């Protein structure tokens, strides 16, 4: 197997990349300045050494604790619970949220053999119970996906946190903003009808 | 209008051919095993993307061939001509609607609604509870698309619960019970009201055709009896928890609901004659068609596969009086039968022999 074939095979293992895209990437690298490939390989080399998971919230970071956990300007009384590290980036990009995060590293899914103990739920409980006065966690926002597994995880967390005195909320689910009812699927519409809100002055 | 043309390629025993179908009533006559039902099946597949006779789609491919293709053109009132094609090759199927791939079959359901009357319908009357549920799921799915989503959602939670029962994960049980109760209750409520409404159509038609003095009606027997709220269901689920753990599966829920046919307080399907059972199945299909028309204001395509044989001529005639309005109807029968004398207008006749349809 030539280097070319090997590289194409490796690239096509990546998510969202098929054999043809992989070939395009490899041929593109061949055509462009060799420096680009060197840079890319150098970065890949350091990836696992420089990026770690934050010891507090569990998201990927180069500094431990991560920039969010160590930022004194952020609101330490709210924790947003997400499924995976990428979700932190997504919510951060809105710039609307100024609290902290907690990454579960998955969802409860008994079919795949993933139970609560396989996630970072115990760590979340520890975080809440050990939070000190002044920097006390008062609210937990559950931001798991609106799937069956996401629902199971959210409900499980609600039960678990019910006697901690912490306020628990979940992201609203329904119509996308700026969207058209016409293009909403039925399940979304049914859900938004159920979770409709009263308009008050 | 319905189908105007159907092309078949290496499908079952049918010869590769183009069949022009412009007509309201399509009659297919032929001896046994010539391909009448196969042609009806091809129409049904073009409507729903799956067969009503088999779940293993490899059987659709003609013996010794690698793939099969069906291609249909059809018209609906006020629309340009539409095309639908079905291809099955190497355990993969590809459905194209007006040239565009259909990814989820549920998007086809309202495309060309068709209702098939087949011999197997008897199993919806005196078969296993599973078959009866399947039939009602089909009836309800065809006009209530949210119902399909509800069923899929429930199925998923049920799978999770069963997996958890095998893991003995009592930690998650109250959470999953809650989810199952919520999802199941929505299905139960829909079934309750559907059966109620269904009876208002079914019972009078059945009485009129069968000429029985006493009324026959459908009785919905939910597995979660006397449960009005999710909280009621939760109590039941908690009670059956030990039993469920022992069997390793969920023993109560809408996946165990029953649909029975009753006369007074007696289970009619246990005392009815073969002809009466057949008549129930036919009237159920008529009711389904009427229901569909009522709910969606659209006429279905009817496929009648040799189902009138067990009825006497009087009941056959009365049966025809109740056939609902349809977009197009396909009838199969043996040569020499005078079953369909009552339909004279707008008829297209075909002889079916050795997989070839010849217009008469």
Task: Name a few traits of the molecule.
heterodimer; A: 201 residues; alpha/beta; Helicase, Ruva Protein, domain 3; Dna Topoisomerase Vi A Subunit, Chain: A, domain 2; 2 domains; four-stranded parallel β-sheet; two-stranded antiparallel ribbon; B: 360 residues; Rossmann fold; Glutathione S-transferase Yfyf (Class Pi), Chain A, domain 2; six-stranded antiparallel β-sheet; six-stranded mixed β-sheet; 10 helices; 15 strands; 41% helix; 23% strand; globular
Describe the protein's architecture and organization.
The complex is a heterodimer of chains A (201) and B (360). Helices cover 40% and strands 10% of the residues of chain A. Chain A is an alpha/beta fold and 201 residues long. Chain A has 2 domains: 3-50, RecR Domain 1 (Helicase, Ruva Protein, domain 3); 60-198, Dna Topoisomerase Vi A Subunit, Chain: A, domain 2 (3-Layer(aba) Sandwich). A 4-stranded parallel β-sheet of chain A has the order 4-3-5-6. Chain A has a two-stranded antiparallel sheet with strand order 1-2. Chain A is globular, with a radius of gyration of 21 Å. The mean pLDDT of chain A is 90. Chain B has 2 domains: 1-113 and 298-360, P-loop containing nucleotide triphosphate hydrolases (Rossmann fold, 3-Layer(aba) Sandwich), CATH 3.40.50; 124-297, RecF/RecN/SMC, N-terminal domain (Glutathione S-transferase Yfyf (Class Pi), Chain A, domain 2, Up-down Bundle), CATH 1.20.1050.90. Helices cover 41% and strands 23% of the residues of chain B. Chain B has helices at residues 36-48, 123-126, 129-143, 145-167, 173-210, 230-239, 241-247, 268-271, 274-296, 313-321, and strands at 2-9, 17-20, 25-29, 67-75, 82-89, 92-97, 100-101, 114-117, 216-221, 258-263, 266-267, 301-305, 328-333, 347-353, 356-359. In chain B, strands 2-1-4-5-6-7 form a 6-stranded antiparallel β-sheet, with helices on one face. In chain B, helix 4 (145-167) crosses helix 5 (173-210) and helix 5 (173-210) crosses helix 6. The longest helix of chain B has 38 residues, at 173-210. In chain B, 39% of the residues are buried. The mean pLDDT of chain B is 90. The interface between A and B is medium-sized, with 17 and 20 residues.
């Amino acid at each position: 197997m030539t280097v070319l074939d090997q590289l194409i095979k490796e690239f096509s293992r990546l998510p969202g990349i098929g054999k043809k895209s992989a070939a395009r990437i490899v041929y593109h690298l061949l055509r462009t300045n060799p420096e680009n490939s060197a840079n890319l390989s150098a970065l890949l080399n350091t990836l696992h050494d420089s990026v770690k998971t934050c010891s507090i919230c569990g998201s990927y970071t180069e500094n431990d604790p991560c920039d969010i956990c160590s930022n004194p300007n952020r609101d330490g009384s709210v924790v947003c619970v997400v499924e995976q590290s990428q979700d932190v980036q997504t919510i951060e990009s809105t710039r609307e949220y100024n609290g902290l995060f907690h990454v579960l590293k998955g969802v409860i899914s008994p079919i795949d053999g993933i139970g609560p103990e396989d996630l970072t739920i115990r760590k979340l409980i520890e975080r809440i119970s050990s939070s000190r006065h002044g920097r006390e966690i008062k609210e937990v926002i559950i931001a798991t996906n609106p799937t069956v597994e996401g629902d199971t995880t959210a409900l499980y967390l609600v039960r678990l946190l019910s006697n901690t005195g912490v306020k628990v909320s979940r992201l609203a689910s329904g119509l996308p903003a700026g969207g058209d009812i016409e293009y909403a699927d039925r399940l979304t519409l049914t859900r938004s009808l159920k979770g409709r809100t009263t308009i008050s002055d | 209008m319905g189908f105007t043309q159907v092309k078949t390629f290496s499908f079952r025993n049918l010869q590769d051919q183009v069949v022009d179908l412009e007509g309201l009533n399509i009659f297919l006559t032929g001896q046994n095993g010539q391909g009448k039902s196969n042609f009806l099946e091809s129409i049904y597949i073009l409507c729903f993307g799956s067969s009503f006779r088999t779940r293993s789609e490899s059987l659709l491919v003609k013996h010794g061939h690698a793939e099969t293709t069906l291609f249909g053109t059809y018209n609906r009132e006020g629309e340009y001509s539409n095309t639908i094609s079905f291809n099955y090759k190497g355990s993969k199927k590809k459905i194209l609607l007006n040239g565009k791939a259909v990814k989820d079959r549920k998007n086809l359901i309202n495309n060309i609604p068709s209702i098939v009357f087949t011999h197997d319908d008897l199993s919806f009357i005196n078969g296993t509870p599973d078959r009866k549920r399947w039939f009602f799921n089909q009836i309800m799915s065809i006009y209530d698309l949210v119902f399909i989503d509800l069923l899929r959602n429930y199925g998923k939670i049920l799978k999770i619960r069963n997996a958890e029962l095998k893991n003995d994960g009592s930690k998650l049980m109250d959470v999953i019970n809650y989810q199952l109760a919520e999802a199941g209750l929505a299905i139960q409520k829909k079934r309750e009201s559907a059966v109620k409404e269904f009876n208002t159509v079914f019972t009078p038609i059945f009485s009129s055709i069968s000429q029985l003095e006493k009324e026959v009606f459908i009785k919905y027997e939910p597995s979660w009896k006397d449960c009005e709220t999710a909280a009621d269901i939760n109590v039941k689920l908690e009670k059956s928890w030990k039993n469920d753990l022992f069997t390793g599966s969920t023993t109560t829920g809408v996946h165990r609901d029953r649909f029975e046919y009753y006369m007074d307080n007696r289970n009619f399907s246990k005392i009815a004659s073969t002809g009466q059972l057949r008549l129930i199945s036919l009237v159920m299909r008529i009711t389904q068609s009427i229901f569909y028309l009522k709910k969606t204001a659209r006429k279905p395509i009817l496929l009648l596969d040799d189902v009138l044989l067990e009825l006497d001529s009087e009941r056959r005639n009365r049966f025809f009086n109740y056939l609902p309005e349809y977009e197009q109807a396909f009838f199969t029968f043996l040569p020499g039968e005078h079953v369909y004398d009552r339909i004279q207008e707008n008829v297209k006749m075909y002889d079916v022999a050795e997989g070839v349809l010849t217009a008469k």
